[in-house]
Design goal:
This protein has 600 residues and is of the alpha+beta class. The chain folds into 3 domains: 3-146, Creatine Amidinohydrolase, Chain A, domain 1, CATH 3.40.350; 160-301, Creatinase/prolidase N-terminal domain (Creatine Amidinohydrolase, Chain A, domain 1), CATH 3.40.350; 306-593, Creatinase/methionine aminopeptidase superfamily (Creatine Amidinohydrolase, Alpha-Beta Complex). It contains 19 helices and 28 strands. The strands form 8 sheets. Strands 4-3-2-1-5-6 form a 6-stranded mixed beta sheet, with helices on both faces. The chain has a 6-stranded mixed beta sheet with strand order 12-11-10-8-13-14. It has a 4-stranded antiparallel beta sheet with strand order 21-28-27-24. Strand 11, helix 10 (237-245) and strand 12 (249-251) form a beta-alpha-beta unit. Helix 4 packs parallel to helix 5, helix 14 packs across helix 15 and helix 16 packs antiparallel against helix 17. The protein is globular, with a radius of gyration of 25 Å. The N and C termini lie far apart (60 Å).
Length: 600
C-alpha cells in the first residue's frame, strides 16, 4: 500500500468513527487563496496532486479528485497508483461533487468538511444542494488530526511596511475610503480574511506565501478601530512602530475567533461571503446584523492609481531586459558545444536574469517552461527531478512573471528553437496571435464586461474548429497576486464591468497533446479611449494600454493570414519594444533585439 493509500485509509477510519459517508477536502486555505503556504496544501498531502485547483472527495470505498481542463494531463500523471480517480470537471458530462453525492449516497447520510476551508457562500451552496437530497453537512477538521509530525508550520517571516512611494496612497486614506463604504451599507464592522485585501489596505507586505508578498493574518475593521490578527513573531520592532503610527492594534492570529464572538449586540457586520471562511462566520454572534456583499476593498484594489500604473510600466521594462537577455542566451549559448539544458535549467537561468533587475523580489508564480508536448499542459511545472531535456529544435512555451516593488508582471512567449517549422505550428501560432491582437486593439463602451470581449480572442481559432479551456484574461495585482479579481476576460458571465485602471492579461492559446502548446500573453491596462469623429452618441469608450514589452517570434507567423492592420500593429509594437528597452541593454543585446524587432 502506498503512502497516499495509507493516508486515505486513515481518513476513512475517522469517517467511520464519526458516522460520515464522505469527506471533502478542497484545495484552498482559510483565506480563500489561490496560492497557499505548504501548511495548507492538504489535497497534495492526501492525493499527491500538486495542481493549483482541485477538490478531493473520499468515501468509505472510493476517492476522487475534481479539477479543470488545465490540469488533466498533470492529474493523470500524479494520481497514478494512488487509488484516486480523476473527475474532469470541465467536461459537460462530469457531475459536480454535490450531484455525485446525491446520486451515490443515501438519504440520511452525512458529509464532513472543515469550515475553515470553505467560504461562507461555498459552504451554504454545498449544504443547500446536499439538503435537497436528504444529506447533511457536518463541520469537522480531520486533516489536522491526521497530518501532524511532518506538517510544515505556518511561516514566521516578518511583515514590513510597503511605502506609499510605491503604493500611491496612504493607509489612512484607504481606511477612510473603506469606512465610508461601510457607512453607505449601514454597517460599523468589517471582517476580512483575504490576504491580498489586508496587504493592500494596510500597506504591508510579507513572504508567507510563494510568489505572493502577503502576510497570513485576519483583519477586523470598525469605524473607530482597526485590529490586525497576526502571529506576534511576524511583527518586528520596526513593523510594530509602523502599525502603531497607523493606529492599528495587533493581536494573535487565532484571537480573531474570540474577538468576533465578543462583538457587541449592536454590531452590524459587513463581509464578503465569497472570500470569508465559514468558521469565522460561525464565530459571529447570532444577534449581530450581517451584511454579505462584495468587498469594497476588492473593488478599490482592482483600480490602479497613477503611481501604481507607472510602477507597472517600470517593472515591465525591468522584466523586458531580463527576457531579452534570456532569449539571446537561449538562442546563442544554451546549446553551444552540444549542451542540452533541461526545462528546469531554463527556469533557473531566467530567474538569474530577473534577479539582476532593480527592485526584484521574487517570481510572481512558478515559471512554466514547457518544451514540445509539455507546453500543451497548461499549468505545467518542471522540477529538478522531473523535467524534459531541451534540444535546439521544436517549440518552447515560456510563461513567467516577476514581483518587483514597482509592480507585478506576467508574460508568455512561445518560440521555435530550430528545425523545420510544421505548417500546423505556424497556423496555431498565427491564430493565437491574431486573437491576441484583436483583444489588445478593441475599443469598447464603458459598462462592458470581460465576458463580452472574450470571443474576440477566440474568433480565428473557432473558425478553424479549435478552442481552449482556460480564461483569456485574469486581473493582476500591484506587487500582490498575479491572479486577482474581480475583473477578468473569460466565457463565464462575470457581472463586473471593466474600469479604467484595471489590469488584465491577454492570453489566448492552442494546445496539442504530445506535440506543443502555443500561448501569447501580455498584460494590458484599461484606459480612457480618445473620442472619434465618427461617434453618434455621447457614450464614453475605453481601450487597452499594452504594458508588456517583449518581442514575438515572427518566424512562427504565417504572414498570409495577417491583415495589413495586424502587421502595422505588430511593427509599431516591436518599434516601441526596441525604443524603450534598447537604452537599458548592452550594445550586443540591443543589436540582437533590433533584429528580433525588425519590421515584417
Amino acid at each position: 500500500m502506498t503512502t497516499i493509500q495509507q493516508r486515505i485509509e486513515a481518513l476513512r477510519s475517522l469517517m467511520q468513527e464519526h458516522g460520515l459517508s464522505a469527506y471533502i477536502v478542497p484545495g484552498t486555505d482559510p483565506h480563500a487563496s489561490e496560492y497557499m503556504c505548504d501548511h495548507w496544501k492538504e489535497i497534495t498531502w492526501l492525493s499527491g496532486f500538486k495542481g493549483e485547483t482541485g477538490t478531493v472527495l473520499v468515501t468509505l470505498d472510493e476517492a476522487f479528485l475534481w479539477t479543470d481542463s488545465r490540469y488533466y494531463l498533470q492529474a493523470d500523471k500524479e494520481l497514478t497508483g494512488t487509488g484516486v480517480s480523476l473527475m474532469r470537471e470541465s467536461d459537460i458530462d462530469t457531475p459536480t461533487i454535490p450531484e455525485w453525492l446525491a446520486g451515490n449516497l443515501k438519504h440520511g447520510d452525512t458529509v464532513g468538511v472543515n469550515p475553515e476551508m470553505f467560504t461562507v457562500s461555498g459552504y451554504k451552496a454545498l449544504a443547500d444542494e446536499l439538503s435537497n437530497a436528504g444529506i447533511s453537512l457536518f463541520s469537522i477538521d480531520f486533516i489536522r488530526k491526521l497530518w501532524t509530525a511532518d506538517r510544515p508550520p505556518v511561516p514566521q517571516v516578518p511583515l514590513y511596511e510597503y511605502s506609499a512611494e510605491f503604493a500611491g496612497e496612504t493607509t489612512q486614506s484607504k481606511l477612510a475610503r473603506v469606512r465610508a463604504e461601510m457607512k453607505k451599507r449601514k454597517t460599523d464592522t468589517m471582517v476580512i480574511s483575504a490576504l491580498d485585501e489586508i496587504a493592500w489596505l494596510l500597506n504591508i507586505r510579507g513572504l508567507d506565501v510563494d510568489f505572493n508578498p502577503v502576510v497570513i493574518s485576519y483583519l477586523l475593521l470598525r469605524l473607530d478601530s482597526c485590529t490586525l490578527f497576526v502571529d506576534p513573531e511576524k511583527v518586528t520592532a520596526e513593523a510594530a512602530a509602523y502599525l502603531r503610527k497607523e493606529s492599528i492594534t495587533v493581536c494573535g492570529y487565532e484571537d480573531i475567533f474570540p474577538a468576533l464572538s465578543n462583538l457587541p449586540s449592536t454590531a452590524s457586520v459587513l463581509f464578503d461571503g465569497s472570500r470569508l471562511n465559514r468558521a469565522l462566520y460561525e464565530a459571529l454572534p447570532e444577534h449581530c446584523k450581517k451584511t454579505d456583499t462584495q468587498s469594497p476593498v476588492l473593488v478599490m484594489k482592482s483600480v490602479k492609481n497613477p503611481v501604481e500604473l507607472e510602477g507597472e510600466r517600470i517593472a515591465m521594462r525591468q522584466d523586458a531586459v531580463a527576457l531579452t537577455r534570456f532569449f539571446r542566451w537561449l538562442e546563442e549559448e544554451a546549446f553551444r558545444g552540444g549542451k542540452t539544458p533541461t526545462e528546469y535549467d531554463l527556469m533557473e537561468k531566467l530567474h538569474e536574469y530577473r534577479a539582476m533587475g532593480k527592485n526584484f523580489v521574487t517570481e510572481s508564480f512558478g515559471t512554466i517552461a514547457g518544451y514540445k508536448g509539455n507546453g500543451a499542459i497548461v499549468h505545467y511545472e518542471a522540477t529538478m527531478q522531473d523535467c524534459a531535456t531541451v534540444y535546439p529544435e521544436g517549440m518552447l512555451l515560456l510563461d513567467s512573471g516577476g514581483q518587483y516593488l514597482d509592480g507585478t508582471t506576467d508574460i508568455t512567449r512561445t518560440v521555435w528553437l530550430g528545425g523545420e517549422i510544421p505548417e500546423q505550428a505556424k497556423l496555431d501560432y498565427t491564430y493565437v496571435l491574431k486573437g491576441h491582437i484583436a483583444l489588445a486593439t478593441v475599443r469598447f463602451p464603458k459598462g462592458t464586461r470581460g465576458n463580452q470581449l472574450d470571443a474576440l480572442a477566440k474568433q480565428y481559432m473557432w473558425q478553424a474548429g479549435i478552442t481552449y479551456g482556460h480564461g483569456t484574461g485574469h486581473g493582476v495585482g500591484h506587487f500582490l497576486g498575479c491572479h486577482e479579481g474581480p475583473q477578468n476576460v473569460r466565457t463565464d458571465n462575470n457581472p463586473t464591468v471593466l474600469k479604467a485602471g484595471n489590469i488584465c492579461s491577454d492570453e489566448p492559446g492552442i494546445y496539442r497533446t504530445g506535440m506543443w502548446g502555443v500561448r501569447i500573453e501580455n498584460l494590458v491596462a484599461v484606459t480612457e479611449a480618445p473620442q472619434t469623429d465618427a461617434r453618434t452618441t455621447d457614450d464614453q469608450f475605453l481601450c487597452w494600454e499594452t504594458l508588456t514589452l517583449c518581442y514575438y517570434d515572427t518566424t512562427l507567423i504565417e504572414m498570409s493570414l495577417l491583415t495589413e492592420e495586424e502587421k502595422t500593429w505588430l511593427n509599431r509594437y516591436h518599434e516601441r519594444v526596441y525604443n524603450e528597452i534598447s537604452p537599458m541593454l548592452s550594445t550586443d543585446d540591443a543589436a540582437w533585439l533590433k533584429n528580433k524587432c525588425k519590421a515584417i
